[in-house]
Amino acid sequence: MIEESSTQPSTTYATMHITFPQQRPARLIVEAGHIYTHETPGPTHQLSARWGSFIVQYLALWGVEIEKWVFVDNYNPRLEGKPNVLEWKKYYRLLQEWGFTPDKTQFEGNLVTHASMLLQELQKKKKVEQHPNGVYMLSKGKVLLYNPAAGYPDGNRYLCSLLDACLYREKLRRADGCVTVLDEQYRAQQKGTLTILKELGEDTSRIVPFFYTAPKSPAHPSVATSQVFAEGYDADEPPLSFVKPALELLKGLQLLSGTVQVGTVQLSLPLEWRL
Q1: How many Å apart are CA 235 and CA 188, to the nearest integer?
Q2: How many helices (H) and strands (E) does the chain have?
Q3: Which among 154, 174, 182 has a CA at the least distance from the CA of 243?
């Protein structure tokens, strides 16, 4: 745009305003190395951390700002009466050795208050119904949310899909997107979590789950299909697929690795020309 400021018989003065988009590199959170407090670190945790390290190195090639997270489940083991054997400082050092030094550690038990608030938010949106057995579930997909009489010491239990939705919400508030590295047994649980997030209006395209296969990985009852869906789950027809070969993962990451427009910058140039 050119604004004429003054005119003389032989000379014209004006100012040209040019607006440029102001951009910054994308900010992404990579979560890997998920562990339970009743576990001792083993090959499956190392595999998760190694994948996390690979993803971080790949994203760095795109100039992405990266924050590395590790998620520790100290909630379900306590409810299930399992002993706390995890030595956190030792595990942290192992993660460093495996190339994935976390910038932030999140404990699942700290999400319970958020889960309660999220459940209330879903109820206000008329997205929740109660199963005949008393368990609260999401109307869409029958995703289990909360068991008010689970028989545990606290007398109730928030289900993993709801707790994980709280974690993703925090990630999406802090970053432009996130990558989560998980064992394939979490596939159903992630489907439940993304269903919850969609019902809350969150942009789930900003979430890239990566499932790896670890044949000797210990089974975790809290993410079993029966603890995620009230009416079963068709593993052959999920909205999430294994991200393999790795090329598919790289394509997904590339979509998150651009720049983000944060405003505009206006440049004003004085112009002068003679007639």
Answers
A1: 8
A2: 7, 13
A3: 182
Peptide bond into 245 cis (omega under 30): yes
Q: With the CA atoms of 82, 233, 142 and 221 taken in that order, what torsion angle do they form, in degrees rounded to the nearest 10?
A: 0
Domain range holding 56? 27-257
Tell me the C-alpha distance between 165 and 169, whole Å.
6
In angstroms, the CA 264 to CA 219 distance is: 50
Distance CA 176, CA 184 (A): 25
Which CATH number is 111's domain given? 3.40.50.620
* Token reading at 157: 């239990």
Handedness of CA 168, 169, 172, 173 (dihedral sign): negative
Residue 86 DSSP code: -
Indicate the number of domains in the chain. 1
pTM check: above 0.85: no
pLDDT tens for 3-47 read 555 555 555 556 555 554 556 678 999 999 999 999 999 999 999
Cβ–Cβ under 8 Å, residues 74 and 110:
no
Say how far apart CA 159 and CA 147 lie, in whole Å: 8
Beta strands per DSSP E along the chain: 2-7, 11-25, 27-31, 35-36, 65-73, 104-107, 128-130, 136-138, 144-147, 157-158, 177-183, 207-212, 259-274
Q: To which residue do tokens 């697929």 refer?
A: 241
In this structure, which amino acid lies at residue 192? G
